[in-house]
Amino acid sequence: MRRVAIIGVGTTKFGELWDKSLRDIGIEAGIKAIEDANISGSDIDAIYVGNMSAGNFINQEHVAALIADYAGLAKRHIPATRVESACASGGLALRHGFMAVASGIHDIVVVGGAEKMTDVSGADATATLIMAADQEWEAFVGMTFPGLYAMMAVRHMYEYGTTKEQLAMVAVKNHRNGALNPNAQFRREIDLDTALNAPMIAYPLGLYDCSPVTDGASAVVLAPLEMAKKYTDTPIEIIGSGQASESLALHDREDICTMKSTVFAAREAYKMAGIMPSDVDVAEVHDCFTINEIIATEDLGFFKKGEGGKAVEEGLTERDGEIPVNTSGGLKAKGHPVGATGIAQAVEIVYQLRGEAGKRQVDGAEIGLAHNVGGTGATAVVHIMRRVN
Amino acid sequence: MAIPRFWRHIGSRYNLVGTKCKVCGKVYFPPRDVCPVCHRKSLGSMERVKLSGSGKIYSYTVIHTPQKDFEMQTPYVMAIVELDEGPRVTAQIVDCDPSEVHIGMRVRAVLRRIGEDGEGGIIYYGYKFVPERTSAKGAQGHLSVK
Ligand SMILES: [Zn+2]
To answer: What CATH architecture applies to the domain B52-133?
Structure first.
């Protein structure tokens, strides 16, 4: 297996981008990434695109070919592959790009993630998001996507004494970080009372416990590590990659306070990287709902099971804490264009490891982790990255 | 939902029909063709069984922002119910105040209207759960015929 590095990154602004289409944002992120990598279109051997549901959001399938075409690559006839695993599509596309370069099949690979969610009504976006769960046995009977995570929260509160205040503190922290991220959808801080008194979505989750509907795209350029120095002085090596699955429906799991997919994906990634959870300096985790940041920080091994809520309360996940989590603002404040999220997480980790994260910079960060979840955890993907000195 | 798509699951939606693995004895709902414990050994040994419909709440939520077609019922309670035979099922909890609902609460299945396919379309029926105490007055809709 060859060692693989990220040699360029790019992202659009996240938010409600009324004037831009899926192909516009896909190309914008891709071009920023290839400019950052100092390569040109003729260097690209293949592209991978993470996208959850263009068919439902914009009535367009076949979007990897579409984006390759509008990137000006149709006449080069390179392979263009879409990867789908609901909200983990981006992270899984990154893993497939990583495997393609590691195996020696391709040298220069662009991996993008893109989702255009605001061309449909909020109700239609909600109906599409629940497609990540079981349509027949969860959605049909009246379940919503926030409702599934709400049931995890109720059980976590019951088992471990996690509080609604601790959930709200995740949102407050992530908004504080998002305020420092020029590409974030929400760039304003909120206080605890605002989060606690927001309209209820699905008890105990209020509006500020939920990530928003977002348009956005992000991209990275991958190369074999031995070639990376030719393009950049600051290659970021992908030292671990893990992926795991779990039952599609939440009710089929013995314990809903843990995501076994996260546990197994992380175990594989840590093993490949040869590191321990305590070696991680900065992490982007899948906070689609505040409860999932708490569950994920436990499952990734940062805290013991049941202590994720207390860890937030004690400030351990703040930018200057023991393990800074979601310095980008997370899905909560940066925004959650579902298929782009896994790539956007990798982009933030690259900024942090290069020392280019501006006011959100974690001092001396050398090892970073990105954790991306599909649905309620039927898929999880974990990547670990390290600065190459 | 297209009519055949609803119709093919009618046994499970009306009568809580699941499957029991004759190799290990584990019961599943909805029905499965392969037992996740026994894998290939279970092929051909997954027997259809009707579940009692009695169980207790494993976790729950109160939905305030519903999906389409459930707006009229908002706020409504959804739960994961652990059936006495073992499997867990996601369902609506009705005939009680949301504030009464708690983990461990005993419930039983009843047959109720779930939704309809637009105006004049077919009406979908299926299981919901009620607190066990209302057994006398809700007997008509009781799924379990002993
Ligand atoms: Zn079995």
So the answer is: Beta Barrel (2.40)
